[in-house]
Amino acid sequence: MTGTERDTALHADVDRPSRREQILQAAAQLFAERGSRAVGVDDVGAAVGVTGPAIYRHFAGKDAMLAEMLLRISERLLAGGSERVTAAGADPVAQLRALIDFQVEFALENPALITVHDRDLGSLADADAAQVRRLQRRYVEVWVAVLARLHPTSDPAACRARAHAVFGLINSTPHSAGQLDRPAMAALLTGMAEAAATVC
Amino acid sequence: MTGTERDTALHADVDRPSRREQILQAAAQLFAERGSRAVGVDDVGAAVGVTGPAIYRHFAGKDAMLAEMLLRISERLLAGGSERVTAAGADPVAQLRALIDFQVEFALENPALITVHDRDLGSLADADAAQVRRLQRRYVEVWVAVLARLHPTSDPAACRARAHAVFGLINSTPHSAGQLDRPAMAALLTGMAEAAATVC
DNA sequence: GCTGCAGGTTAACCGCGGTTCACTACGGAG
DNA sequence: CTCCGTAGTGAACCGCGGTTAACCTGCAGC
């Protein structure tokens, strides 16, 4: 434990990112573009200016990289979502708005992570995949709790399907990259998501 | 050219599907579950009761299988979408409803194809990928034309982003599989999509 | 100034999976 | 009956890519 080491699981040192963080970020970008299976260890290395095997100084293997990437994403979503919803007070409309703002913000800020998150879950070892799915499920339940109060007559299954549909809507950002500038995109998605989440 | 041969590019013989069709369908299922790169030729063969190399009697290779799969999907979407929108008359509201019904129907009927369609596009050879993207673009433009009449003040880029968001919403079905029965799911998605497409 | 470790490098290893090959079984046409 | 094209099999080939090994380098601390 040196003095400069951080809790790499949660906050990346954005000023002068450690090699480890550089690798994770570059890998996320490449994985998003081509899919994790199509990206070689050498590619990831080259993207940060080292050779392939150098990766093994920082990660146990390619799988471990992907696992940490997906776990972090799921954790950030769950933590951020929970935080925002409690900060929004007791009004379910305000809570929904807070969740939508958060998800839109995250999707616009990290399109690559969004892409990898639901494309490459299947390439994970069973244990890691289960862990990620657990976190995802908890995040979904945060949404479901809010949606259930907005739609008292809907059963939980319907709320869950509704939540997934709103995710799909917001997470479409990687598909419409460069169409609109960020504020316009955020406004459009927020409006659409609120309408979709509220209708009926 | 024997007398029993059909135009395999567009209509599958659903009664007694040819081996070729069986393979494509099984491959779509497997690709959707694990991703095309993670599925071996032997797996696809086994799924239709045949060894791996037998595939090469029907396809030039694994890539050709995926290419045909994605091309067919894109063609079906474009053809179906165009057809429905002309059948809906001149009213843009009716046209939108027709497009949404079509997309919902397709997504609920073919969740595996939906998944493969936007997950494995990157594993295609450049020429095939370009062809698929061309078809996708034309399908998007069908939507954009309708959305533009509903939102006269929006520029085309905003309509395109809106179309992608609606696709994301509807194509979320693979993520909420088994939550609701088909009619309930269709009603929910249709309502949400209309709200999202119309708002503002 | 040695020592040691963190971080790299190049070369080699090796298993997996797509593809090819040589051969077989069979059903229909002449 | 023979011939031939279609569909399938098991074995072999081979290249790619993840991983490991052995060796280098520079800087921190005694």
UniProtKB/TrEMBL annotation, chains A, B:
Residues 40-59 bind DNA. It comes from the Bacteria. The keyword DNA-binding applies. Gene3D superfamilies: Homeodomain-like (1.10.10.60), Tetracycline Repressor, domain 2 (1.10.357.10). PROSITE patterns: HTH_TETR_2. Keywords: DNA-binding. It holds the Pfam family TetR_N. InterPro entries: Homeodomain-like_sf, HTH-type_TetR-like_transc_reg, HTH_TetR, KstR2_TetR_C, Tet_transcr_reg_TetR-rel_C_sf. Residues 17-77 form the HTH tetR-type domain. The keyword Cell inner membrane does not apply. This is TetR/AcrR family transcriptional regulator.
